[in-house]
Give the backbone structure.
Amino acid sequence: RSRERSIRSLMRERLSEHRLQLLEEAGRLAESMNHQVFAVGGFVRDLLLRRDVLDMDLVVEGDGIAFARALAKKLGGRVRAHKKFRTAVIVYTPPGEGENGLPPEEQKVDVATARLEYYEYPAALPTVELSSIKMDLFRRDFTINALAVQLNPEDFGRLVDFFGAQRDIKERVIRVLHSLSFVEDPTRILRAIRFEQRFHFRIGKQTTRLIKNAIQLKLVDRLSGARLFNELKLMLREKDFLLDLLRMEEFDVLKAIYPAFSMNQRVEKLLREIEKVLNWYALLYEPTAPRQWLLVLMGLTERFPDEDARGVATRLAIPPRERREFLNLRSLCVETLDRLNTWKYADGSRSGLYFILESLPLEGILFIMARTGDEDLRKHISLHLTKLSHEALEITGEDLIAMGLQPGPDFGKILREVLAAKLDGQAPTLLAELGYAERLVREMRRGGGSGKKRVQ
Ligand code: ATP
């Protein structure tokens, strides 16, 4: 039986006013529909760990979709329902202001239906009958994610812990719920490692044994590329992705995903540099976040022949557009690094740097920063990211028309030359830009082409 404990006060202390109200509302609504409703999973775990709580997952003993529709109505939100799975997602905008006076960001509440059923173990072990919330929790990946907190008014805040989750959170250990867990779903191997590193927990003894077994049985081979890629992306999004990868190597999971993967010294060193560059970039608070998985995959496959890089993309069933991007980026980075080295000795101008890097995706630029051992070059690339890439002309095509130029291919050329001048400090103001453009237009009229050939 579950040990009774209320975390009502913890919820009051940790949750925002509107979240608390939402949960209370959900409880009252369920009560009026004669249902039981629980908040479950990562939400409860993060509350107990006193970490910031992100999205909320609710489980309803009853009709989950009808409940979600009714709750969405009260919240002024929308519902996306999946009838087949009896689940729904509520998307709504919380009241009040978001950060910097902007409208608040949309939030999601996942709603699932729990029902009474018979659980049959995959390998014909005895069938057990469970109450529906217990059943729902039993199907989860680890004990620490198998906690629920009741929301109905009478029991609001009552913790439902059938599997020793509180003990495991206290002892900081990742444990599966039963010995066939990884057979049921081998992606849990990656999840175990991800949670272990994120929370600084450790994978329990028995669970460690089960992972080793699963690897030996080649269960990872059974996973579809899409599921594997999805779980890998979640892992590589973590701040501690490098520790995740090292741990994967320890368990031989990397090789199970693709045999040529290896965390040898060279790869590890490159990934450390990638980690440093990512941390540096995060401190800039730029609006675009790099796709960490792409950078890490570039690092892992740096020395791979193209055939193996394609093999990785195929094994992970990377969708066509991203696949092309990944494969192109590999050669693009090598070429760009060559061009940068030439530029450094033969040119050195800011505009030259800008035009080499402008069409390279952010991940490529960061990869090159990590890849080059040349501190000077790093500083130049950093200048590009923090400053040059944000530069824009004040003049536009309109100004060129006003100078009597007909719109045509020369337009772009002239604007790029003015931009080059601006980057190199020769056209620091609007007036200087106009003057520079006028001179180019005059030269063009005289010579029938743009004057200096400095822009490729
Ligand atoms: P995160 O903080 O990374 O979002 P989370 O615990 O919320 O962590 P999700 O991937 O959003 O993780 O999953 C939500 C919940 O669904 C988990 O807490 C877990 O209980 C359950 N779950 C997710 N994936 C699996 C799986 N492969 N097997 C069993 N249960 C899973």
